[in-house]
Every structure is written in C-alpha cells, then in structure tokens.
C-alpha cells in the first residue's frame, strides 16, 4: 500500500536554530537546557548547529522544557506557545514579590489590580 503523503526532508540546521531561538527567548543557557534533558552542553550545541538530531524522547522533553510544539521544532510550524510562555513568565514575575506581602498589603493590591483591569476595559 502506497502512502499519499510526501515525507519532507528535515533541515537539522533550521531545527537547531528554532531550538536555540526558543532557548534564548526563555533565557536558558545551554548548560541549563542540557541539565533538564540530561545531556551535555556540547550535545545541545551540536543540536543547535544542526550537527546532530534528537531522539523521540529528547524531542518530547524539548517540547516540554521549551514550551513549543514538535511541529515547530521539526518543521517551523508557527503554532508555538511563545505567547503563553511569555504570559506565564510575566505572571511569575508579578507574583514573586507578592510572596513578601502580608494579608493587608495583598488585599490593597487586589483592589488596585481590579481597579486597573476595569479601567483598561473602559478604554
């Protein structure tokens, strides 16, 4: 039985560029990414320069750590989760200093945020 689809040639150099672009967007070093994938930083460099490919397992881990789809890594399909990633990072940056606030301060900030969001809706 013949398949009706054409297998596209994987461009390892472009794949590596997309991985590097997302890693840098997330402010991850090669060493940090390597640690999360349990590989060497040299291996990450080899992937980013298109000198080596990745296994299915490592591809899956890359999608999780970099918060992108496998389609984006493999073919550059633009259904990446960059906007979601950026939104999550902004929320984390907002929430981090709030950990030092007491209940009264948090209640005050809650009112300020609600007022601000309502004001944005009116514009």
From TrEMBL:
This is Transcriptional regulator. It comes from the Bacteria. It holds the Pfam family HTH_19. SUPFAM superfamilies: lambda repressor-like DNA-binding domains. GO terms for molecular function: DNA binding; DNA-binding transcription factor activity. The lineage of its organism: Bacteria, Bacillati, Bacillota, Clostridia, Peptostreptococcales. It comes from Emergencia timonensis. GO terms for cellular component: cytosol. Residues 19-73 form the HTH cro/C1-type domain. Keywords: DNA-binding.
């Amino acid at each position: 039985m013949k398949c009706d689809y054409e297998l596209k040639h994987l461009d390892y150099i472009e794949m590596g560029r997309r991985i590097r672009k997302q890693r840098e967007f997330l402010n991850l070093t090669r060493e940090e990414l390597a640690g999360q994938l349990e590989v060497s930083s040299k291996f990450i460099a080899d992937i980013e320069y298109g000198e080596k490919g990745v296994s299915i397992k490592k591809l899956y881990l890359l999608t999780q750590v970099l918060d992108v789809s496998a389609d984006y890594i493999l073919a550059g399909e633009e259904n990446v989760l960059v906007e979601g990633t950026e939104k999550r990072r902004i929320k984390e940056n907002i929430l981090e200093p709030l950990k030092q606030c007491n209940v009264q301060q948090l209640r005050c900030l809650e009112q300020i945020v609600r007022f601000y969001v309502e004001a944005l809706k009116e514009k």
